[in-house]
Each structure stands twice: as structure tokens, then as C-alpha cells.
Amino acid sequence: MIIRKKPIVLDAWRVIDVSIDDEVPVWVFNAMANRKLNEVPNGGWNVNTLEGKMHANIGDVIVRGVDGELYLVRSTIFKRTYDVIGDEP
User: pTM of this prediction?
Assistant: First the structure.
């Protein structure tokens, strides 16, 4: 069987050092509030994914799936496999 994955539009956020004054998308703020996304003191973020806890480095991308689940995509993989089609509304 040969298949092609259906094209879907997802929300994504490039990992940065966040301060209290920075604006982040609402879904990222909610993930922080629900402890699905936690800043690490030495840099980066811990992301609770379906596969378990993963560490996101600055520049990596966190993607919100169709059911609200979070995925970590390394920056090099993101550049090769995704096209940015817009900004957060």
C-alpha cells in the first residue's frame, strides 16, 4: 500500500526564552498553565508529549496537533518538513 498523509494546518511556536512581558499564543499560555509546557532554568522547555517528556531547545518548534496534543519538532527537521503559511491570528 502506498499512502499520502492528508494536508492539515497546525499551530506551531518556535521556542524562545520567555519573560513575563513576552506575548505567546493563547494555546502556548494554556499549555504552560496546564503544566504541559515548563520552562527549564538552564534554558529551553520541557514538553509533555504523547511519547513522554521531551526537552525543547531554543529554536526548536512545538506543534499543537489536531486533538490539542503537543509535539516537539527539532529546528532542522522543521525546516525540511514544514512550510510556514501564516502567523498566529
Answer: 0.85
